[in-house]
Write the structure tokens for this entry.
Amino acid sequence: MIKLENVSVTINGKNILKNITCSIENGDFIVIVGPNGAGKSTFFDMISGKRIATEGKIFLDDRDITHLDEQHRAAFISRLFQNPQLNGIASMTVAQNLALSNYKNKTVSLTNGMKKFPAHLSSELDKLNLGSEKILQTPMKNLSGGQRQLLAFIMATILPPRLFMLDEPTAALDPQSATKLLQFAIKFINDHALTTLLITHDPELALAIGKKIWILENGHITKQFDVQKGINLSASDLIGHIDYQKLMP
Amino acid sequence: MLSEWLIIQGIIERGLIFSLSVMAIYITSRIIHFDDLSVEGSFGLGGALMALLLTHNIPWFVALAIVTLAGASAGLMTGLLHTKLKLNNLISGIVVTTALFSINLKIAGSNMVVGNKTTLFDLIPQTSNLKIIILIPVICSIALILRWFLKTECGFLFKAVGDNPQMLTNLGKNPHTYVIAALMLANGVTALAGGLFVQYVGYFSIWSSVGILIIALAGLILSESLAKHFGFNLIMGAILYQAIIAATFELNVDPEWNKLITALLIILLIALKKHSSLFTQRQS
């Protein structure tokens, strides 16, 4: 369980996140929605350790991780970025990227860089119909955005993390690639009961996949919905709950 | 005929030594994408220290190890300035190179003659003067070791940090550690080149290190016209550059124009490369 207690983040004198208190339970699938500039990405940055909270405390179970940096939080948090460029090494082949992603939480040495190649993932690649034999030797930069995000998803979950964060992972993709990625991701997340946070602007998607929906506005979590408890909420209702006028100054 | 062979031999020998600096520039600019100007100072540091150590009767192989470590320390300084003090890549390198110019002067003065001290090249009979026999296996071995290293797990992380430092953080690794390690490796290798050059010519001159960066860059660009990967193409690029400079000697061009010729060569090669890529794009 991850618990935030009165967490605030101030950047250049601006209070981006304000006194947030919330809990992310094991197995939660929380979708975060909110207007642009509400602080959603900063919320992710603060949890992943990219930004250290200016005030308040963050706990993983009972361990205080408030001042733990991003590199060390990566041991239990994985993050998929909106920008496919941030999710892999463009100049390296897919096989090399997969091997590299398996260095996580392991010591590296002067052995062959491909030694940690996760051969067991070949079946996952087959499921994606990416032509696994050929694609393995293809440089990452030659793949489409959709293929890159799919592989990035596999790479980020090579060691199932305690918390998985997806920051608008389909924003840069065409609808077909976005659907393919989401179908694969949702099945994987449910099969492995991954504790997941996902940012989206799509209310229908939020309602379709989220077990919980949080609305983040102006640096506060203003509303929380528990979809599992059978609340009667439509996409237009959800939009109605978001105050798009309440943008950051 | 004999004099022609001697010219070709000299071109190859110098090319082999300078190819180490080309390898260093490849590591910094092509792998970790860090335009490191301290490589210039490290070459001089390697040379100055080598001259000093040899004149103090330190065995040549110990001296080579020491100059490599000294170069690595210069790389460490550049890395720390960049990662800890957040100095820009170029400024970090300029600061270190500027500092090293004074340090090199203090170590060996503006000139220092090694004299008849034993060097690596004494492994072959003095009369043969075929230093190429020593240099080919030594330089090729270093190139092969570096190529092997770049295929190891550490080498993969070097490539990764240049392309996407966020990825290293995602893997729980510190990107700064790998930037610093790569700079240490590159500067160590170029200091080794500086040390070998002093053993090769028999003296140190503070001016011999000036412009090494641009010589290495010219070698790198020439090598990339042969192949883009890390391999013997880097050695060929360095030799090709030496051949071009030697050709200007043959054409009786005043050596004072060498640096200008190098600069023009780089501009020409880059312009040709851009033109050819534009042409390729049009074709496709």
